[in-house]
Structure formats: C-alpha cells, structure tokens
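hey so i finaly got around to running the thing on Ornithine aminotransferase from Melipona quadrifasciata. pasting the sequence first so u can double check i didnt mess up the copy paste, my clipboard has been acting weird all day
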Amino acid sequence: MKYGGKHFKPLPVVLVRGEDVYLWDVEGKRYLDFLAGFSTVNQGHCHPRLVKIMREQVGKLAHTSRAFYSEPHGALAEYLTKLLGWDKFLPMNTGVEAAETAVKVARRWGYRIKKIPSEQATVVFAKNNFWGRSIAALSASTDSNCYTDFGPYVPRFDKVPYNDLKALEEKFEQDPTICAYMMEPIQGEAGVVIPDDGYLKGVRDLCNKYNVLWIADEVQTGLCRTGKRLAVDHENQRPDILVLGKALSGGLYPVSGILADEQIIMCLETGSHGSTFGGSPLGNRVALEAVKILEEENLAENANKLGEVLRKELQKLPKDIAVEFRGRGLLAGLVINKDFAEGWDICLKLKEAGLLSRPAHGQILRISPPLTITKEQLQEGLHILTTVLKNYK
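ok and heres what it spat out for the 3d tokens, dont ask me to read them lol
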C-alpha cells in the first residue's frame, strides 16, 4: 500500500459490500464471513434496523459533545443497566478506551475507597491478555510483538498466569496495593483459551476476600458471542466492572463503555475523565438498537445452538490436520497441526474457496461468524473449511 501506514497484514481481498453473513469483493465474488470483524458485527453486516436507525439519527443530530445532554444518552444507559444489572453505564468509543477507563476507575477507587497509599495502586492482568495497543494496553501485554521498543511502560502493572487461582491468590497475598484484577473470561486473541470450570467463581471469591476489583474485559466475548449474554454468565458470576465494545456498535459506529455500581463509577467526578465522541447521540442511538437486535432476535440462543454444531463437526477432523478445537458458542479456534500447514496458507485457500477468516498466533483458525448465521449457512461454511483442509496437500 503506497500511501498507508502499516499496522496490519490484510488477506489479499478488497471488499466493497456486506449483507448479513456475506461479503463481496471488487470483482463481485461472494464470501461467507467467518470473522465478523473480530466479533464486532454480531448482528450481521448492515442489519436493516441498524442502517435505518443510523440514517435517521445522522440526519437529525450526530454530535454535540458531552457539554450538553442529548436525547439518546439516557435511553442507552437505562436499557443496559436494567438488562445487565449494574447501577451505571459510562460510554466511550473503542474497546481499548473502555478498558483504560476501567483501569482509571479502579485506580481512583483504590485510592479513595480502599485507601491505597498515593501513587502505589497496582493493577494485575492475566498473562496473554489482549485489550488493544495503546501505551497502557501494551504495558499490560506479555506479547513481545505488542510491546517491544514502545517503553517506558506504565508502572505498577503486574501479570499473573491465566486460569491459575493459586498464583492469583499468592499475588493478592503478597501485595496489599492491588486495586484490580483485569482478565478476559475467555481469552480471544490468545487463541480462544477457555478457563477451567470454576475459575470465574474463584476469581470472584478471591477478589472479595482481598478487597480487589474484578474487571471483566468482555469486549470480544460479551453481547451473545459465547452463547450467553455475557461470558461471565456461564458461571453466573458478576464482576465489579464490565467492559463492553465491538458488538455494542453493530459494526456501524465505534461504541464501547463500562458498567459498574455507583460507589465505583462515581469515583470519577466532573473533569476527571471524558471523550469528544464518547456518548454521542449517534453512538448511543446505534448502540441501543444494536443490543435490542441481539435480544429480540435471540442471538445468544442461536450462538449456543450452532456452537454445538460447529464443535461436533470440527472435532471429527483427524489430529494430523487439527490438533485441538476450542470454542464456546460462536467464538471458536481450530488449532492447525504445524506439520500440516501454516494458518495463513490455510486462510488463503479458504479465501479462494469463498470463506474469509484469519489465523491467531500462526496456527489457530478463528471461527466467529455473525450471530445471525443460520444452520444451513454454518454448514455451508463448515463444508468449505473441511474440504479445504482435507484437500490441502
């Protein structure tokens, strides 16, 4: 690309149109989308309800800044808090901004409520986390591709192995300055890593015991992707701060935010946090419709049901092709045997066959189609995927 900066390696396809679970390139070829914008277009591409709402709102009032109230702001906050069960919702734009907001709130709570000495609040992160590429996010990262040569890093960010309650408790015991533990209920970018049953309850219990805030990063796993409204719902657990993004936007306009109870979220007073576009009339109206679509079209139920179809089909693959299937709902990863092929090369073959996805960490094929996908469309995609794999050599 002659004029653009480099921050991604795209597949060699130029897309021009999307509708529901399908995408079309400049030459008119149609593809099944098995990525959904990294779980952003859970509602399908260009959902007619979302397009209608966006057209209406953009022609009425798109942006005012938060210097004023606007009509859709209260409506979104009321709907999300009542639906998900926290006192307050604070809107931002991108997932990384929402996650940073959670860290800011947790630090402020650490000083003002937990009474941690000034400048000493520590935030603990699960190793192999991914929540963006800002300076704070890369300071929390254990992926050298993410953090190398971007230091100095944010201080008092600590890391602990994921899915290891013993290590987490040791960390909490050793360090009374910890204000929060931030983790993904399922690690997405790490390759769809699902923790042991009971891990989320264990995190909740330890955070209660040591007076630490539990921040659940559900930017990718939230909003029906894993077959429940939230991934924490698989163990019926409630974090102190919930981070949402991606599908909150329906893929139309960046919207993210955090939910928390009053004592926590009101540690931010006027002037201590803000965003030019966060909570805009357009963003709020789009987000409200995006979540209503997920609810009214029963997309969590669809993800749960079709996730089982996906699992049963892909677990049949021989181990010399795929060594492991990982998945919950329609968030899945297929680990390709390194001796068989590189994930990138498989994705190139899939593109030729009419299916789009991308690998994670070289060998893990991501499978996260729009949640509007039907059983027939899923089976069409699985047929393409298994045929390409079986005929690869």
